[in-house]
Amino acid sequence: MPAEVGKWTSTKIGRFISLLPEGKIFTTRDCVQYGTRDTVDQTLCRFVRRGRIRRLARGVFVKDRYCKYRYSNYDIAKAKAESFGRRIFEDASNIARERGFKGGKNDQTVFAIDGRSSSFKIGGTVIHLKEVPPRKRMLHGSHSGEAALTLWEFGRDSISNLAFKYATFDFSRIDLLEFRTKNIQWMPAWISDYIADRPWLPPDPVKWAIA
Question: Which CATH number fits domain 3-62: 3.40.50.10810, 1.10.10.10, 3.40.1010.20, 3.20.20.10?
Fold first, then answer.
């Protein structure tokens, strides 16, 4: 690498970092405009060794000279996914846990993504990004959509009136309407048929529990 090229890249990346607020996450892809990939990688490694930035995962860094900031696996995975123009979502299994359909704590090593499945490491922890089918993506981001994902995760053989009430126990009437009209088109047939074959009930104020 010619010295003048390395110096130019180092100056440009250094200026880019200096303009970032403290605690700001960035990725290698934010810096590739300043030189070849090898030159950029070497420059970032040098800044890490000097303590100017901190490496959170491969290709993911933060301006945190005094190690004051802590980041969740989700924060790091989100930055990595977005650097490739992708979005990540909460995995359906974790949504099901939050609604009481599964035991245990949320698994913060698995996230859904609107791209190909992949994995990377944060320290010694392997993070999995699971490809989500387009129909499931359409259900993310809304209260009623998450209920549909919960039923989907619970499985065809387990769907029942009790499971249905459990998934929708905290719904408002607006949520129920959206569930039946807006989101039903994205659900598998075994869920939409179940809804169509049964009378619609208002949400029950009692939180149902599955034995």
Answer: 1.10.10.10
